Amino acid sequence: MSDTVSRPWRPTRNQKIVAILVLLIAWTAMADSWTDKGCTLPQGYMFVISHGGSPDRDQGCEDEPGGPEYTDTYYG
User: Fold this and answer.
1) Tell me, what DSSP letter sits at residue 53?
2) Has residue 15 been placed in a domain?
3) Is there a contact between 54 and 32 (Cβ–Cβ < 8 Å)?
4) Hey, how many other C-beta atoms are within 10 angstroms of the C-beta on 67?
5) Structural domain tally of the chain?
């Protein structure tokens, strides 16, 4: 029998950096899909988190005097 101690697998620093970059790229791609529905990119980043990803067919932003506002009855 071996006297070596088994350590659990831990990601390396490079693996952590790559994982974070992949998440940021995916987040940006989903946020960009909100801009196709009339929202600004910063709104898109927020909506990805609050609405769970890309917009559904009836979600988007309508032009309002103060800037684009979210609506769940988007027909754009």
Assistant:
1) S
2) no
3) no
4) 10
5) 1
Q: Distance between the two ends of the chain, CA-based, in angstroms?
A: 69
Residue 50 belongs to some domain of the structure:
yes
> CA 23 to CA 67: how far, in whole Å?
28
Rounded CA separation 56/39 (Å): 13
Q: Where are the alpha helices (DSSP H) in the chain?
A: 13-35, 41-51
Structural domain includes residue 27: no
Tell me the residue range of the domain where 62 lies.
35-76
Taking only the tens place, the pLDDT of each residue in 22-72 is 999 999 999 999 999 999 999 999 999 998 888 988 898 888 888 888 888
Show Cβ contacts of residue 74 under 8 Å, excluding neighbours closer than 6 positions: 37, 38, 55, 58, 59, 60, 61, 62
Question: Do the domain assignments include residue 28?
Answer: no
Using a cut of 0.85, tell me whether the model's pTM lies above it: no
